[in-house]
Specification:
Helices cover 53% and strands 11% of the residues. It is an alpha+beta fold. A 5-stranded mixed beta sheet has the order 1-2-8-5-3. The chain has a 3-stranded antiparallel beta sheet with strand order 4-12-9. The chain starts with a helix and ends in a 5-residue tail after the last strand.
């Protein structure tokens, strides 16, 4: 009888230990509610972003639940974190602990082989391939091409006009730059077809992943399929051109990626990875750059002293150029004040509100357990408006970036940090500086509407930022 009791106890001990462990774990999960399955708090966050009070929405959660809380975003249980410690935790954690996974909607629309979804050796391999095109040494070759696109854009859409809407035009400009630099796709019918599908695709990047015909998510998925089909056609054409020695591996992103070979002459990056990462770079270059340039134009219209300083710097560069001569990499290096203006714009109006990671194991953070498989949602912009980090945070002050080493680590990370820093950072910088150079030296402007904007999910002026423009005397 005693042996039976002992045997039963031995069998029950593992079960009891498991129950105790689960009870402890569940008690240490952050406070909050997961809400309705799939939907959770997604609609609340999206409404807050659209109404331009997402930060207040976050602050209300913090007051209610504390600095760490659980919720359900875009179909997955999620833990919200924010602040300098949270940013450091995200960007300094090893990939065995956190996976750089985006929301389900982003993953399905951009594809699961883009660099934001990859970890470990796959991430290193694909990132290295992308950087072979996007590193400064390579991008130096494309400054002239970007210069030509910007000047052509201004001649077509700004010259002779009395009023323009800035955001739609900046999106047109960045789209044309992307088509030219990434795909070697020149103006014409194919580029126009590309634009319509591309705009539809990005509308559902942050959406509840319910794949029904009437949803934004479904429309974006169908647009993504069309984009991928077009990119495959472009890639196959370029592959033939490379085999016939009719193309250079330096002429655009796709030929560059196709031309990267391993020791056995095998392709280092797969065709699926080329397509998915082309889509990622395309979205990043299109949305982020157009938003930053738009808000710089908006701020220069209401900050005359800042505009005067930018104009002085750019006119000095223009005076050093011969008539019609393009800007060079060296010219961009002289635009230090203009870039500080861009950084301050990014601080006040960050294009990226926050980001997501996926836990690869149970993680302890700030006294709580974040279970394996959950999302972590961190809000980068909260530190950028923290008065203890940036005094008078609502004031537009480019001098904050005269000495960037004075800014505490992980408090201003508009392009990410560490091994996850945005690979397109330098390209965005070139696009911004070249565009601002020609805009301020060729035009004057004033706002025609209010300064309201919303997030969708990036900040966008509610009316597209209409401005009245008139020509400035070109420096010769």
């Amino acid at each position: 009888m005693m042996s039976v009791i002992l045997a039963t106890l031995l069998l029950l001990i593992p079960v009891l230990l498991l129950l105790i462990r689960r009870r402890r774990t569940s008690k240490r999960v952050p406070p909050g509610s997961l809400g309705i399955p799939i939907i959770g708090q997604s609609l609340g966050l999206l409404r807050a972003m659209c109404a331009n009070n997402a930060e207040k929405w976050i602050e209300q959660r913090i007051r209610k639940y504390g600095p760490v809380s659980k919720l359900n975003l875009f179909g997955k249980p999620t833990v919200l974190i924010h602040g300098q410690a949270a940013n450091k935790f995200i960007f300094s954690n090893n990939e065995g602990t956190l996976s750089n996974q985006q929301t389900q909607s982003v993953k399905m629309i951009l594809g699961d082989r883009n660099v934001l979804e990859l970890s470990g050796e796959d991430h290193k391999r694909v990132r290295s391939a992308l950087m072979s095109f996007l590193k400064p040494e390579s991008l130096k070759l494309y400054v002239g091409k970007i210069d030509e696109e910007v000047k052509r854009h201004l001649e077509m859409h700004w010259n002779g006009k009395q009023q323009v809407k800035v955001l739609p035009l900046m999106k047109t400009l960045t789209f044309n730059l992307i088509c030219s630099l990434l795909f070697g796709l020149e103006r014409g019918k194919q580029r126009d077809q590309f634009l319509g599908s591309f705009q539809r695709m990005i509308e559902g990047m942050w959406s509840i992943p319910i794949n029904l015909p009437f949803t934004r998510y479904n429309r974006s998925l169908r647009a993504s399929a069309r984009i991928q089909k077009m990119l495959k056609q472009i890639m196959n054409k370029k592959k033939v051109e490379l085999e016939r020695n009719e193309a250079s591996t330096h002429q655009d992103l796709i030929t560059c990626l196709l031309g990267i070979k391993g020791d056995g002459d095998e392709q280092v990056i797969t065709e699926k990875e080329i397509i998915h990462n082309s889509m990622l770079v395309m979205v990043a270059g299109y949305d982020t750059s157009s938003v930053v340039i738009t808000f710089i134009i908006r701020l220069l219209a209401i900050e005359p002293a800042i505009l005067a300083a930018v104009l002085q710097e750019q006119e000095e560069i223009a005076k050093s150029k011969k008539s019609g001569e393009s800007l060079t990499w060296e010219d961009l290096g002289k635009m230090k004040y203009t870039w500080r203006v861009a950084l301050e714009t990014l601080r006040l109006f960050p294009p990226i509100f926050g980001g997501f990671r996926k836990t690869m194991t149970d993680i302890e953070y700030d006294g709580y357990i974040i279970p394996k498989g959950w999302q972590i949602f961190w809000v980068t912009s909260m530190t950028q408006m923290d008065n203890s980090i940036f005094p008078e945070p609502s004031k537009f002050d480019p001098s904050r970036f005269e000495d960037q080493s004075s800014i505490p680590p992980y408090c201003f990370i508009p392009f990410g940090a560490g091994s996850r820093i945005c690979p397109g950072y330098e390209l965005a910088k070139i696009e911004t500086l070249v565009s601002i150079h020609y805009l301020v030296t060729r035009f004057s402007w004033k706002l025609c509407a209010d300064n309201n904007f919303k997030r969708d999910p990036m900040p966008v002026p509610t009316q597209g930022l209409p401005i009245e423009i008139w020509p400035r005397k070109t420096v010769s």
